[in-house]
């Protein structure tokens, strides 16, 4: 009996050490951020029962995120760690998967609430300004939380103790890097140039590093994906099979591991909001109502439709919850939205994360 207890104790020590090791690995920023000086305490959501963060816990609430710039994957990763460090416990992060070219895909949790909603951005590479927007939301909501400030009438402190907002700020880090820095920034540059007809200007790229359009790769309606090209390229290729890509697999696994009551999938083209294509019948009314609320706040007209293979219908069918696909900028042609549009985008969307969090409650806006 004593021997058994001894082995049990040893087992606990070993698994404890493994857990600490895992947390430490999770807490490391990307290799190219070695200059980053913040201490790397475990920030995983595995850490529970943290005290609610107060004004006295934070030295400054000056903005961390600068959204008025070409915002790279490296900018995002550094800002995620700075936010996680400053707003300790209010903001946590985890790596939910790895892109084709080996970049970590990050999720950020904001808030302490048991209720959960999901917001993601930059599924389409050239639409990277959506990352600027959601990182700006995380930063400003965190500051408002500790300062007990209202944002657009929302009591952020109260709201984020009831609801946690989960963000994946950059679903497609390879594609964003390709658009911003060119093929040399990726390890499969020769392949990318080949499937882009030798054109070194990747500013119009929407796909991932396999040339698959991630918003055509989801399993619901995949057979009917709109304008599928049948081969890898800068847009619309739905992939060799449903959910073939590591990025869509990471999102699907992450979503299935939560109890999200609502989702926003940020895209850029057209200042409108799509509210589903092939919805389950029981989501028709609630999706339309959600879109109406979102449309009234942003000024975006409502659109029914989209393509097969999109996140939107997959989420509706697999999770059974409403979701929206906002397109947050005037159509910019086949390239990134110019940064001059950012102020307008922010004005229309700065409180939308809170509006969505509030929506699943009994309307707590005061
Ligand atoms: Zn898009």
UniProtKB/TrEMBL annotation:
Per the Swiss-Prot or TrEMBL record, the active site comprises: 327
The GO molecular function terms of this record are:
metallocarboxypeptidase activity; zinc ion binding
User: Pfam families, from UniProt?
Assistant: Peptidase_M14
PROSITE patterns referenced in this protein's UniProt entry, alphabetically: PEPTIDASE_M14
**What cofactors does this protein use?**
Zn(2+)
Asked whether the UniProt record includes Transferase among its keywords, one would answer no
What region holds the Peptidase M14 domain? 69-360
**One of this protein's GO BP terms?**
proteolysis
Q: Which GO terms describe its cellular component?
A: extracellular space
Q: Mind telling me which residue stretches traverse the membrane in this protein?
A: 7-25
Query: Which UniProt key words apply to this protein?
Result: Hydrolase, Membrane, Metalloprotease, Protease, Transmembrane, Transmembrane helix, Zinc
Q: Which family does it belong to?
A: Belongs to the peptidase M14 family.
Q: What is this protein called?
A: Peptidase M14
């Amino acid at each position: 009996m004593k021997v058994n207890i001894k082995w049990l104790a040893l087992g606990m020590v070993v698994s404890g050490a493994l857990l600490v090791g895992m947390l430490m690995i999770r807490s490391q920023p990307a290799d190219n951020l070695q200059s980053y000086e913040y201490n790397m305490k475990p920030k995983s959501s595995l850490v529970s029962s943290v005290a609610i963060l107060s004004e006295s816990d934070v030295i400054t609430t000056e903005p961390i995120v600068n959204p008025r710039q070409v915002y790279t994957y490296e900018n995002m990763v550094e800002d995620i760690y700075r936010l996680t460090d400053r707003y300790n416990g209010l903001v946590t992060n985890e790596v939910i998967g790895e892109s084709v070219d080996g970049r970590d895909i990050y999720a950020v949790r904001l808030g302490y609430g048991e209720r959960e909603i999901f917001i993601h951005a930059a599924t389409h590479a050239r639409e990277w300004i959506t990352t600027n927007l959601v990182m700006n939301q995380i930063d400003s909501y965190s500051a408002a939380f500790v300062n007990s400030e209202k944002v657009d009438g929302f009591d952020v402190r109260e709201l984020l103790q009831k609801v946690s907002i989960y963000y994946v700020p950059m679903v497609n880090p390879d594609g964003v890097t390709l658009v911003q820095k060119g093929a040399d920034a990726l390890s499969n540059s020769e392949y990318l140039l080949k499937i882009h007809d030798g054109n070194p200007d990747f500013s119009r790229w929407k796909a991932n590093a396999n040339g698959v359009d991630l918003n055509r790769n989801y399993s619901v309606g995949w057979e009917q994906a709109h304008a599928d090209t049948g081969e890898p390229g800068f847009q619309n290729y739905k992939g060799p099979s449903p959910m073939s890509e590591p990025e869509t697999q990471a999102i699907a696994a992450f979503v299935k591991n939560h109890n999200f009551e609502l989702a926003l999938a940020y895209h850029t083209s057209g200042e409108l909001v799509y509210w589903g294509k092939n919805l389950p019948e029981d989501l028709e009314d609630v999706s339309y109502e959600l879109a109406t609320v979102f449309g009234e706040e942003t000024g975006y007209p409502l659109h029914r439709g989209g393509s097969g293979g999109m996140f939107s219908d997959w989420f509706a069918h697999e999770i059974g919850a409403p979701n929206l696909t906002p397109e947050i900028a005037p159509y910019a042609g086949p390239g990134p939205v110019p940064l001059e549009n950012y102020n307008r985008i922010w004005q229309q969307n700065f409180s939308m994360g809170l509006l969505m969090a509030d929506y699943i409650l009994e309307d707590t806006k005061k």
